[in-house]
Design a protein that fits this description.
Elements lengths: L2 E6 L19 H17 L5 E5 L2 H14 L4 E5 H4 L6 H7 L5 E6 L3 H9 L5 H9 L5 E6 L13 E7 L3
Parallel strand pairs: 1-4, 2-3, 2-4
Antiparallel strand pairs: 1-5, 5-6
Length: 167
């Protein structure tokens, strides 16, 4: 059964004058939260085969904090298309997923929240209610679905858990 984990990057510094948004680093709190959410992913998310991350500095640093807790050696791809995705990561997932059984996507809002809402079969329960209100930094939504990645369509995933680093 394929599993998708959508992880919004941890808290980043504000852009300094002349600094591009792409180059913003994590704050001290963000680095701490990325390690915390990594431990939660390891506990509740299972083994990861493939990591798809935005190329931004803050998503790379989030991965650096998460990776030690996960163990194993998943394939990692840094994709500019996740930084410039607009409102949905669905096209990127359909193009990049291949044969992986569990994919961790590290990205940005609004695409992260919109993708979670788009893919969810329904957002019942406590986790669904929290996710429907927003997608905080250093939070992960874990979804399962029956089928293959190429058949991934809006509305055919089930929310398994929604976990916040601070929660």
């Amino acid at each position: 059964m394929p599993r998708l984990l959508l992880l919004r990057h941890a808290k980043a510094e504000r852009a300094r004058p002349g600094e591009r948004d792409h180059e913003r680093a994590l704050t001290k709190e963000g680095r701490k939260d990325s390690k915390t959410i990594g431990k939660r992913i390891a506990k509740d998310g299972g083994a990861i085969d493939l990591v798809l991350s935005s190329t931004s500095r803050r998503t790379r640093e989030t991965w650096d904090g998460v990776a030690p807790a996960l163990g194993g050696e998943p394939e990692v791809r840094f994709l500019g298309s996740l930084f410039d995705a607009g409102d949905s990561y669905l096209p990127v997932l359909q193009a990049e997923s291949g044969e992986a059984q569990a994919i961790l996507v590290i990205g940005h809002n609004p695409a992260m929240h919109e993708t979670a809402l788009e893919l969810a079969e329904g957002l019942g329960g406590r986790d669904g209610a929290r996710l429907s209100k927003g997608f905080p930094k250093a939070a992960v939504a874990i979804f399962d679905f029956d089928g293959e990645w190429r058949s991934l369509q809006p509305g055919n995933m089930r929310l398994v858990a929604f976990i916040e680093a601070a929660g």
